[in-house]
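USER: Please consider what follows.
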Amino acid sequence: MTDVRPEARLDEEFERLEPDPRGQAMLRELIGIHRMLRSNLKVIDDSATAVSAGAPQTEVQGQVLGLSGAGGLRTLQVNCLAYCRFVHGHHGLEDAAMFPRVRAANPAIGPVVDRLEADHRRVSDLLDATEAAADALEDTDAARAAVVDRLAGLREHLLEHLDYEERSLGPTMVRMTGWYD
């Protein structure tokens, strides 16, 4: 799939297992959700940058129509808040349902999961800061710049996290069975 870093090693017994179709499906689903997160973040980030640069509300509305269909600054605000809440939920589900199963299936991956859980806490803080800026969004240069700044910090850490998660968990996920038990 992609390269596997040393910290993403497999338990010796687990490494001998062949990929399982259900595990492969779970990894494809994870990658699909991450692809949507990347795409929606780009739309929101581009829209916030345009708003901060003083773009007309009709232009911003056009950029975010694929996310909701409302208009102007309010559309950016609502979509930014909805995006943040979705990522919070996605990471909460991974922490509660996926990571314990991955740890149990392949104990050697514990340090990777530890890092991912720490990443989730960091991303959560960045999401909270982004939500606060979006919630306070008004038609001022300072409020617009705050949203852009928070999104830049979120983007930097979240995108790196998603890449690392896919690359590091992929070899374990595709070998796991019992996903639907």
Q: What stands out?
A: Helices lie at 12-15, 21-52, 57-64, 72-105, 110-135, 141-173. The domain at 16-172 is CATH 1.20.120.520 (Four Helix Bundle (Hemerythrin (Met), subunit A)). Confidence is low (pLDDT under 50) at residues 1-6, 65-71. The chain has one domain: 16-172.
